[in-house]
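COURSE: Structural Biology Practicum
ASSIGNMENT: Worksheet 4, Part C
STUDENT ID: 0417
INSTRUCTIONS: Below are two proteins. For each, the amino acid sequence is given first, followed by its structure token string. Answer the questions at the end about the second protein only.

PROTEIN I
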Amino acid sequence: MIEILISLFVLSGSLLSLIGSIGIMRLPDVYARMHAATKSATLGVVLLILGTFTYFLAEGVFSLQLLITIVFVFLTAPVAAMIISRSAHRNGVELWSQTKHDELMESYPEHLEPERDNEKADNS
């Protein structure tokens, strides 16, 4: 029975990592790719580590390091993605052409708004 549980963790983690990888290649802009990289890949890595933790637990070994790794991945991956996305937005990386609302643009003070290439082209 424990082998089935471990297999479910490992297979679902692998599937989520595969979906995240496909999303990174197929999604249209850096912001959507960051979403794919963090959401599915983070959950995929956590499920793989959970499968490993369950395997060692079934063998009689309690691994605190694996549990700490799960917490670390859950805490750091979303924060890193948010910082990378904000940095890209701040440096003027273009949004997808069909993006309807830019929430980050409203959060900047007027003198710190990022310059976009298409805005430069419109002004010249």
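PROTEIN II
(use this one for the questions)
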Amino acid sequence: MPVPEHLEFFIDPSRCIGCESCVQACSECDTHRGHSMIHLEYVERSRTTQTTPVICMHCDSPTCAEVCPADAIKRTEDGVVQSARKPRCIACSNCVLACPFGVPKMKSDLELMMKCDMCYDRSSVGKKPMCASVCPSQALFFGTREEIERLRKRSAAVNRFRFGNQTVTTKVNMMVPRDARPEYIDVAAAMEEDSLGGDIMLNVLST
């Protein structure tokens, strides 16, 4: 059963409080076998405690699947990019190196790449992914576009990212300030920005 089309995933890094509830909940998903498929990253650890949740962005043209020599990664018709399948994954780490968002992780003890599959057992039947179901600040939100627009009147959803000359469109949306809504988020440019405290969100945006 596909993920209902009207339900979407939204990430708002500015609301992340670093509690790691999402990390703990993810490992409890029935299909994750005790492994968390989400992680937190510090935006700039030497200067701020600001964290951001990192999940699979479920690219429309997933590079991880394109570089997999064993055809172990599949994108379902509803746009969800599944984690590698154990019978096929050869643990070559091509997907880990290729993902522009730094999402896939190689579990060396299992010889298997594992990443967020949007809790497919839950989201495909209309339930929230585990991380979104427990996030106390709603930095991770799974619902309709109408709901997020009503809840975040000063924010807008963007699902286009620029890496140099390459533009990647994703199934997952990133929330940005509505007044400064860019056509895309320039990830490569953001890496060169000098971010600090409250200026973090503004500095990662590019028009």
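ANSWER KEY EXCERPT:
Q1: Residues 17 and 205 are 21 Å apart (CA to CA).
Q2: DSSP finds eight helices and nine strands in the chain.
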